[in-house]
Amino acid sequence: MSDAIGAGRPWASWRAAERRRLIAARLAMPAVERRRLARRIGAALDKLLADVAGLVIAAYWPIRGEPDLRPWLESVRARGAHCALPVVVAANAPLEFRSWRPGDRLARGVWNIPVPADGPPVAPQVLIVPVVGFDAGGHRLGYGGGFYDRTLAAATPRPFAIGVGASVAALSSIDPQPHDVPMDAIVTEHGATDFRRRRPTADPTFSMGRKNP
Question: 54, 94, 203, 212: which could form a disulfide with 151 (CB 3.0–4.6 Å)?
């Protein structure tokens, strides 16, 4: 994974150290505990999203101890959602999202992460983003490549971005920089924190591409 953004700056060095610490702690978690955590995150996502019928929901293929939400994706497909996975198309470009369902042919993408080999590109309305760490403002500590920041900055309309991870990954602050795009919500095994109504620039009536009644 890349630590390229901000290389040589104090905040970048601190983030790299925190990244190593948090990933090591995540990998040390027993597999049974990771499965339990993923189930609880899935339940919290269900409460946050409620009606998923017709939505395009992009998630991720789990690596390095990330919560495995593939069973949850199967459950939302059964309720009428369409699922997608991210694909890195260029080093400094936004991610592309391709339609995916269990059983589809996969190829090895960047960092050997499986990606849909044949799925057509789609524009997700909901984007589930794994976090290495997160802070009270909804800012996400990721792997350092900036892919999700670029993706959200370029997306029109912007998807409902939900960071997911264990509560032990909480940080007081990631010292956010201008390129850091905050999540709209953070979900852990203890539930969801929705930041949309806390931000004066956000439209609180707009949710996942649909106006609330």
Answer: 94
Q: What is the DSSP string of the chain?
A: ----TTTTSHHHHHHHHHHHHHHHHHHHS-HHHHHHHHHHHHHHHHHHH---TT-EEE-----TT----HHHHHHHHHTT-EEEEEE--STTS--EEEE--TT--EEE-GGG-EEESSPPB---SEEEEE-SEEETTS-EE-SSS-HHHHHHHH-SSPPEEEEE--GGGEES-----TTPPPPSEEEETTEEEE-GGG-TTS-TTEETTEE--
> Top-level CATH class of 10-136+148-208?
alpha beta
Taking the domains of the chain in order of start, what are their residue ranges?
10-136+148-208
**pLDDT tens, residue by residue, 41-88:** 999 999 999 999 999 999 999 999 999 999 999 999 999 999 999 999
